[in-house]
Write a structure and sequence with these properties.
Elements (H helix, E strand, L loop, with lengths): L1 H16 L18 H7 L2 H7 L19 E5 L5 E4 L3 E2 L7 E2 L8 E6 L6 E6 L5 E6 L9 E4 L4 E5 L3
Antiparallel strand pairs: 1-2, 1-9, 3-4, 4-8, 5-6, 6-7, 7-8
Length: 160
């Protein structure tokens, strides 16, 4: 029975913020449009896998999961401001988590039925890059947990 719980918790940790590796970006026309080759030239292999192929990084491995500096997290593909450090919180999931985006227009939410689950995918509103998922188990005031891959983000430190 002990091993059952270890396996169950491990699977939950992987899928809590895990994405599928499906290569189907949204059909929406985003303001920033580039070919796959252009994205591959501009992004690292890991950024491309996550942002353009809807991949995920392993929990507790991304550069921002435990990041505490003040500033703004922006899309690694196009620089669009996405989340403020003021809304970042420790969710225990191993991925950077936020309770709201800086601007609702800068992120898009889309139904995701991959991996046998029903979740809400979070995309960059400007380039359509896959960021992660949003769940209804976050803190007040929104009750939301935007569970985001570090590789989909860059950080702009707050200027003094």
């Amino acid at each position: 029975m002990k091993y059952f719980w270890i396996i169950a918790i491990s699977m939950w940790t992987f899928t809590a913020c895990g994405q599928s590796n499906e290569n189907n970006m949204s059909d929406k026309d985003y303001p920033i449009q580039k070919s796959a080759q252009e994205w591959k030239q501009e992004l690292t292999a890991e950024e491309y896998r996550i942002l353009r192929e809807k991949g995920t990084e392993r929990a507790f491995t991304g550069k921002y999961w435990d990041h505490k500096a003040e500033g703004t997290y922006v899309c690694a593909a196009c620089g669009t401001p996405l989340f403020s450090s003021e809304t970042k919180f420790e969710s225990g999931s191993g991925w950077p988590s936020y309770y709201q985006p800086v601007n609702d227009g800068n992120v898009e939410e889309k139904l995701d039925k991959s991996l046998g689950m029903v979740r809400t995918e979070v995309l960059c509103g400007k380039c359509g890059g896959h960021l992660g998922h949003v769940f209804n188990d976050g803190p007040p005031p929104t009750g939301l947990r935007y569970c985001i891959n570090s590789a989909s983000l860059d950080f702009q430190e707050k200027e003094e």
